[in-house]
Write a structure and sequence with these properties.
This protein is an alpha+beta fold. It has 11 helices and 26 strands. Helix 2 (about 200-235) runs antiparallel to helix 10 (about 480-540) and helix 4 runs antiparallel to helix 10.
């Protein structure tokens, strides 16, 4: 199974099943976030049925001749998919295949048969054929080739030829000058001269069948491996779709017939991924250690909001958090710049708030201000950024808690208007130069080397003890930080790329192993065939050249005639 993408609150995955039949498939979702400790969530099972592929080839099986008719052989044809599984399915619903058997050497052996037709309603059919020898003088052994012609309206692999060795009786076997042979003897001669078809050398047949099946298996496995490689390359994240850190060592992977080059490119890419993963692991640890070392992680406020104040969303320090690697210094700078304003309570509506504010002030131990979520235009774009600055304070602020989309949008708009007045620099000298050169009315500046010193547009300065005792903003948890999420995104990209690279390498290795194994099998079979051929050649040297002795005129005997009565026709099917 492999992950594809998210679509809203749905995740799309792909998986494959190779076993034919009905299956029940279900998924289990596990939230891996450190802040989530809930149990896994299981989906409802769905029924999936795996069927055979479309018809691509025919399976031919030859049968022994019937006992009542030794001249007649049978065969069975079955429609199969690419993996040799029987099937009747094809996108062309009215598919049809007609098969006719014939022999190439019809001057030696004549075949009598009828055409058979396969289709979706009859994916398996049986047929018969009869071999009728064409007798010739002193003919002992002939080889004929059995061919099955296929005509179809779909693409079907042709059937292999079958070579048959046919031993024929001599034409003179039942014809003699000796008139002393009686009628019973004539009947015996005729009986002996009848063809008797039998399957011989069965181990050879099995071996050839196995070789054919092995050839098809190798073809199917090779096709699957190549397809897996193409699919993995297609799923591989492209250079323009990954983070710049990965682009620096990205290796373009393309399909090629050179498996060695493909593996080397993948392994080179994997080396960069391993180094990057090691770097990310250290940065993850550094993030967590820095967060653990923070002195003030959570917000501080003296405001108490009673439950009766339903329109109050909370105070500014509790509604927002700081998200930046320099969060601790920015926390001090915000407390210095805004002070008790961080205790301001935000209401959803701008109606009569006196009664609610009275209740808040009675329970709080500080001076409380109020603010409402009202629609205001954004500030002009030309003041969004300040040259040389780390950024405006609103760019470091995130929501503590998400509500409905409209409320979230209004809260972020409020934070932009409220915090953007503070311009943050790395160094105080840069902040002073900005104040002298281009500071706008109402702005404040601060340098993070002295976060407890804030300079206002009118020249006034605010100083605060570094140990913040007034209102304080909280700092977002490290696993929610933008920088941490960016590292996690890089880790996810690396995992996705590495998974596809492993898939490519695995299939390349399988292809190489299959090629080596096939070469070994071919060498072994060739050696066995050569040995068998040498044995057959040795037997041929000892075998008489003629099955029947030459008749010597004037010396025929009944014994000679009886010898000829033992002759028979034998057909051996060597499936190649």
């Amino acid at each position: 199974m492999s992950y594809k993408n998210f679509d809203g609150n749905c995740v799309h995955v792909t998986f494959s099943l190779s076993e034919i039949g009905s299956h029940q498939v279900s998924a289990e979702f596990v939230d891996s976030r450190p802040s989530y400790a809930g149990p896994p969530i299981a989906s409802k099972p769905c029924n999936v049925e795996v069927k055979s592929g479309p018809v691509e080839q025919l399976d031919l099986q030859l049968h022994a001749p019937a006992t009542d008719d030794p001249l007649q052989c049978g065969f069975t044809l079955a429609a199969c998919d690419r993996a040799s599984r029987k099937t009747n399915y094809h996108p062309t619903s009215e598919w049809e295949a007609t098969v006719v058997a014939r022999v190439l050497e019809d001057h030696l052996v004549r075949i009598e048969t009828n055409a058979v037709t396969l289709n979706a309603r009859h994916p398996t059919v049986k047929g018969t054929f009869t071999l009728v020898p064409q007798r010739q003088e002193q003919q002992e052994l002939c080889a004929c080739t059995l061919v099955f012609n296929v005509q179809s309206n779909i693409a079907i692999r042709s059937l292999d030829q079958r070579t048959m060795n046919v031993t024929l009786p001599a034409a003179s076997a039942g014809v003699h000058d000796d008139t002393a042979i009686n009628d019973n003897e004539n009947e015996e001669v005729q009986e002996a001269s009848r063809a008797n078809i039998a399957f011989e050398e069965q181990p050879v047949i099995i071996e050839d069948d196995t070789e054919e099946e092995e050839k098809l298996r190798v073809e199917v496995q090779t096709s699957i491996c190549h397809q897996n490689i193409e699919n993995a390359i297609a799923r591989l994240l492209k250079r323009e779709g990954v983070s710049p850190a990965i682009q620096s060592y990205y290796v373009d992977i393309a399909a090629t017939s050179d498996l060695g080059k493909l593996k080397r490119d993948c392994e080179r890419f994997q080396t960069g991924i391993r180094n990057h993963n090691a770097e990310l692991t250290e940065r993850f640890k550094d993030f967590k250690n820095k967060y653990d070392d923070l002195q003030y992680k959570t917000e501080v406020t003296d405001v108490k909001i009673p439950a009766s104040c339903k329109d109050a969303l909370g105070c500014i320090s509790s509604l927002f958090s700081i998200d930046h690697p320099r969060a601790a210094d920015i926390q001090t700078a915000l407390s210095t710049a805004f002070g008790e304003d961080l205790n301001s309570v935000i209401f959803q509506s701008d109606g009569d708030l006196d009664e609610q504010m009275d209740g808040i002030c009675r329970q709080s131990k500080c001076r409380v201000k109020s603010a409402c979520l009202v629609e205001q235009d954004r500030l002009p774009e030309d003041v969004e950024e300040s040259r040389g600055a780390l950024g405006r304070a609103d760019s470091f602020i995130v929501l503590n808690k998400s509500r409905d989309a409209e409320t979230d949008r209004k809260l972020l708009s409020f934070a932009e208007r409220f915090f953007r007045r503070l311009v943050v620099f790395e160094q105080s000298d840069d902040a002073i130069r900005y104040r002298t050169r281009s500071m706008l009315r109402g702005e404040m500046v601060v340098g993070l080397d002295r976060p407890n010193k804030v300079i206002s547009w009118d020249g006034s300065q605010t100083l605060l003890d570094k140990q913040v005792r007034c209102a304080r903003m909280g700092i977002v948890e490290y696993w929610r930080a933008k920088a941490y999420k960016e590292l996690q995104r890089q880790r996810d990209e690396l995992d996705s790329i590495d998974k596809e690279l492993k898939e490519i390498i695995k299939n390349c290795q399988e292809l190489e192993e299959e090629e080596d194994s096939q070469s070994t099998r071919l060498t072994r079979r060739k050696r066995v065939k050569n040995q068998e051929q040498r044995q057959e050649d040795g037997e041929d040297e000892l075998r008489p050249r003629k099955l029947f002795p030459r008749r010597i005129e004037g010396h025929e005997r009944k014994g000679k005639a009886n010898d000829t009565r033992e002759a028979s026709l034998a057909v051996t099917l060597n499936l190649k």
